[in-house]
Every structure is written in structure tokens, then in C-alpha cells.
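Run log // design_07
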């Protein structure tokens, strides 16, 4: 019997994927709303950072660069790092990209940069006594940095769903917007798929990396074409908005030629994960003056479902008890004063800072934004520890503070990009972006941007881990 490469892929590592999705914890490992006290104290540090993602690692490294004498420690539940940025290139089957490309060893960063790291689950935060409680004990701090990333708000979006149904959604229709097993699970689903449609949902409200679902659609369509699979990638967008919209639409029309279908204003009402059926209500508006629209209930079948629900701040933010915005995402409200018109300190507690996806600033929730904000947060904290003042506003406006690439094709590899400038916008950091076209071709996508995508990711990993 001849065994194809795809059949071999199906056979190898199935147990790995099963193990990877067996748990349903949040990005920090804590059950939403969990609190706890520690039976023992593990010590105290000048700066404690919750979360070893792009933002948390940047704050830690920058603080040690500014002053090697700073005592800095990260609390992170995972024992290795997995990158969400660039992960769609793995799903697209691009040459030289695999799950190992996305995975890095925390011990390398610890040894190179000199900060500490505790692998543990956060169970509670006591701001009065300045203690973070974890599964391994209490950790004291002078300054606390919240960089826990996002979680999924299944319950808010589907209040009638049982915990068992939500757990099944996580297992069989992984969102893959947080690091860990769900990336392994989605990779397994794609790499072992048969003919059939792939459905990707795009949530309303703020969510991590707005271009991600659309880049993912492009990359999965690329993989299906390369493997000779019949089917389409269908995007069910809860709104009509598309990050880098004109650029993605250009690539879908010219590269994918109908293999990617974007449906606007589609609100998921239910999913039957056994029958592989999605029921949703789509609203069609006649014109810009039509505020009600015509609603139609539809049911479609799928082969693979990349179910991205509404996003919210990781429950660690709730544990910290800091003020948040009233929206479902619950972004951290940031401090402001005439002396420091913008800051990464929280409005609730001058000793607690926030970076990454959870910040209340009006900046894109991307890897590059996390790096930029991490560096500025580190400057702000370092000045405090040195008894000096610093205003983030002094670094603004900042051109190309966020440069975000999206791969859209292969043979040749091509990518698109958006470039954001950050500026002071009242009490927060604001941003404005532009999606450039190539002057020679008149196209948004270029091979040069594809090379820049690879170079950017390699450079970011070198910066975080070396």
C-alpha cells in the first residue's frame, strides 16, 4: 500500500494534537475569575511581569538593558514560547515554516538577558500587599506589569451554551489566537483535511491582530490549492470591516480566484459540532441610509471550522482589580496627568502597568505594537526606579511604530502591509494607518514585502531571545 505524504502526516503526531487540546485553560492557565492565596512566599522582585509574550518579554529585556542591576522576573504558565504572529505562514505550508519555527525556548532568553522566570499559574493578585499569588507560591513586587494577552468570551457571545459545549468548541474548532495547543490543533486539522469548505469567523469588537483571520484565509486557500483539495475558504464576518481590506480583496480576486469568499454582517446563532453545521443570521443593507437591513437565517456545512469568538482581556486583568473600559473586551484604563499626558501605568494603581493587547490606548493589538509599547513601558518604569520622571508623550508622534505584514500568496511569495503612526490623542495613544501600493506594479502585494515579512519575524525573535 502506498502512503502519501499527507497520509503520513495524518498518522504521525495525532496523539500530540490530542494532548495539546485536552485542556481548556486561559492564556495564563487560570480559570476565569479565580482567586487564591499562596501557602508560601517565593521572594520579592523590583518588577514582576505577568505574561511571557511579545510585550512581557520586551519589558523584561529592555529593563535589564537600561540597568542590569534591576531585579526583574516574569511569571508565565507555559514552559516554552509560541508565536501567534507569523503562524498563518505555517498553515499556508510556506517553504521553511513549521510549528518549530514558531516555538522558542524561554531558558535562552533568561540566560541571555538576565531576568528571572517562574513557570506557574497566576491564581490571585493582592495589590494592597503587592503580592502575586501563583500555583507555586507568592511573589512580591514593587512594580507589577500586566501583559497576559487575551482570552475568548464564548459565554458572553453564547450565554445559553453549556460549559461542555464551549469546551468542545475549543477542541474541535480551535480559534488559534493564543499560543499553545490550539495552534497545534488547527495545524493538524488543516494538514490532514480532505475536500470540503473551511469556515473562518471574524468577531465584532476588538480582537487580537485584526488582519489575522483574513491572512489565514489567504494562507489556507494557498495550502488547499497546493494540495489539490476541492473547496473554498468562507469568511463569516460579524461586521463588514476588513483590515487592509482593499489589499486583501485584490489578492483574493487575482490569486485565489474565487477560492476565498467573504460574507459580511453574519452573526453566528448556533453551531452543531457533530453535524458540522453553522447557523447564522446575515443582514443585507440596501444602501447607507438603511439602518435595519434584511435579515436571513442560513445554515452551512463545513469541513474545518476556525471558530474565532469574541475576544476579551485575560482574566488576570479582573484579578488585578484595575479599572477597565465598559465594552466586552475590558481594556485597562490608563493613567493620565498634565505632566504625563499618556502612560502605561493603570489609572487605578500607579504601581501597576499594562502592555500588549489589554492596554486602553487606541493602538493596533499586534506583535509590533506590543514590542513598541513594551519598550516605552520599560523606559517609564526605569525612570521611576531611578527616581526620575518620564513621559511617553516625548516619544510621540512616532512614525512606523507598527508595521504589520500579511502573507497572501506563494510561487511567488507575496505580502501586503499596513504602516501605523502613533501620536498623542487626548488621554491615550492614538494611531493612523496606511496601506501602500507598489508604484511600479500598482498592486498592494509584492515579493519584496514577502521577504520583509520573513525578515521582520526573524529579527523580532532575535530581539526577544538573544
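design_07 sequence
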Amino acid at each position: 500500500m502506498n502512503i502519501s505524504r499527507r497520509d503520513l502526516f495524518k498518522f504521525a503526531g495525532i496523539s500530540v494534537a490530542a494532548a495539546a487540546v485536552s485542556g481548556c485553560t486561559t492564556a495564563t492557565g487560570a480559570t476565569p475569575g479565580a482567586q487564591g492565596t499562596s501557602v508560601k512566599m517565593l521572594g520579592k522582585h523590583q518588577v514582576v511581569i505577568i505574561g511571557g509574550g511579545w510585550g512581557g518579554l520586551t519589558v523584561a529585556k529592555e529593563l535589564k538593558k537600561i540597568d542590569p542591576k534591576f531585579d526583574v522576573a516574569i511569571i508565565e504558565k507555559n514552559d516554552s514560547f509560541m508565536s501567534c504572529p507569523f503562524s498563518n505562514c505555517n498553515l499556508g505550508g510556506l517553504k521553511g515554516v513549521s510549528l518549530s519555527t514558531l516555538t522558542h525556548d524561554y531558558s535562552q532568553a533568561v540566560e541571555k538577558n538576565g531576568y528571572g522566570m517562574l513557570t506557574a499559574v497566576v491564581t490571585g493578585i493582592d495589590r494592597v500587599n503587592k503580592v502575586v499569588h501563583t500555583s507555586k507560591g507568592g511573589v512580591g513586587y514593587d512594580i507589577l506589569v500586566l501583559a497576559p494577552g487575551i482570552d475568548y468570551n464564548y459565554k458572553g457571545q453564547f450565554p445559553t451554551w453549556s460549559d461542555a459545549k464551549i469546551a468542545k468548541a475549543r477542541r474541535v474548532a480551535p480559534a488559534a489566537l493564543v499560543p499553545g495547543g490550539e495552534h497545534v490543533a488547527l495545524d493538524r486539522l488543516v494538514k490532514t483535511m480532505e475536500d470540503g469548505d473551511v469556515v473562518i469567523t471574524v468577531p465584532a469588537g476588538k480582537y487580537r491582530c485584526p488582519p489575522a483571520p483574513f491572512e489565514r484565509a489567504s494562507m489556507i486557500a494557498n495550502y488547499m490549492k497546493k494540495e489539490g483539495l476541492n473547496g473554498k475558504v468562507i469568511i463569516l464576518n460579524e461586521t463588514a470591516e476588513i483590515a487592509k481590506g482593499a489589499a486583501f480583496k485584490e489578492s483574493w480576486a487575482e490569486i485565489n480566484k474565487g477560492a476565498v469568499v467573504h460574507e459580511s454582517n453574519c452573526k453566528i446563532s448556533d453551531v452543531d459540532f457533530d453535524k458540522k453545521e453553522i447557523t447564522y443570521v446575515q443582514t443585507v443593507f440596501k444602501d447607507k441610509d438603511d439602518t435595519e437591513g434584511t435579515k436571513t437565517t442560513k445554515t452551512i456545512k463545513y469541513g474545518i471550522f476556525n471558530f474565532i469568538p469574541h475576544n476579551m482581556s485575560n482574566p488576570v486583568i479582573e484579578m488585578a482589580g484595575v479599572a477597565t473600559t465598559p465594552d466586552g473586551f475590558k481594556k485597562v484604563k490608563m493613567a493620565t496627568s498634565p505632566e504625563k499626558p499618556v502612560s502605561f501605568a493603570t489609572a487605578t494603581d500607579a504601581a501597576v502597568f499594562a502592555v500588549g493587547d489589554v492596554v486602553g490606548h487606541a493602538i493596533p493589538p499586534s506583535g509590533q505594537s506590543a514590542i513598541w509599547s513594551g519598550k516605552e513601558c520599560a523606559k517609564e518604569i526605569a525612570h521611576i526606579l531611578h527616581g526620575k520622571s518620564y513621559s511617553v508623550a516625548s516619544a510621540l508622534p512616532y512614525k512606523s511604530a507598527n508595521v504589520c505584514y500579511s502573507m497572501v500568496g506563494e510561487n511567488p511569495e507575496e505580502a501586503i502591509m499596513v504602516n501605523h503612526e502613533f501620536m498623542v490623542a487626548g488621554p491615550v495613544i492614538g494611531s493612523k494607518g496606511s496601506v501602500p501600493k507598489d508604484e511600479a506594479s500598482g498592486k498592494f502585494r509584492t515579493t519584496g514585502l514577502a521577504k520583509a515579512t520573513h525578515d521582520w519575524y526573524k529579527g523580532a525573535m532575535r530581539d526577544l531571545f538573544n
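The radius of gyration is 22 Å.
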